Amino acid sequence: MEQALTVKQVAELLNVNERTIYRMAASGKIPGFKVADSWRFLPKDIQNWIEDQKAQSATRVDSQ
């Protein structure tokens, strides 16, 4: 089983502020789950989410 990532690790991976990751996770915009009161993210879920974001961006650009 792969080790879950912390908010800090995901923020560093995506080059965004930790608050952004908290907001996105709380609103369901990025896949994550809570352990006690701490957000955690599975690397495969984040990678899949990144690929989905890339595909959506390409679709928006293609349709213009």
Describe this structure in words.
This protein has 64 residues and is mainly alpha-helical. The chain has one domain (7-62). Helices cover 58% and strands 9% of the residues. The protein is built from three helices and two strands; from the N terminus they run ααββα. It has helices at residues 7-14, 18-26, 43-62; strands spanning 33-35, 38-40. The protein has a two-stranded antiparallel sheet with strand order 1-2. α1 (7-14) packs across α2 (18-26). It is elongated, with a radius of gyration of 13 Å.
**Which runs of at least 5 residues are low in confidence (pLDDT < 50)?**
none
Tally of domains: 1
The tally of helices reads: 3
Q: How large, in whole angstroms, is the Cα Rg?
A: 13 Å
Helix fraction by DSSP (H/I, runs of at least 4): 55-70%
The biggest sheet, with number of strands, parallel, antiparallel or mixed sense and barrel status, is:
2 strands, antiparallel
Structural class: mainly alpha
Helices and strands, in order, run as HHEEH
Mean pLDDT: 93
| Outline | elongated
If strands are numbered along the chain, what order do they take across the biggest sheet? Answer: 1-2
Distance between the termini: 42 Å
Beta content:
5-15%
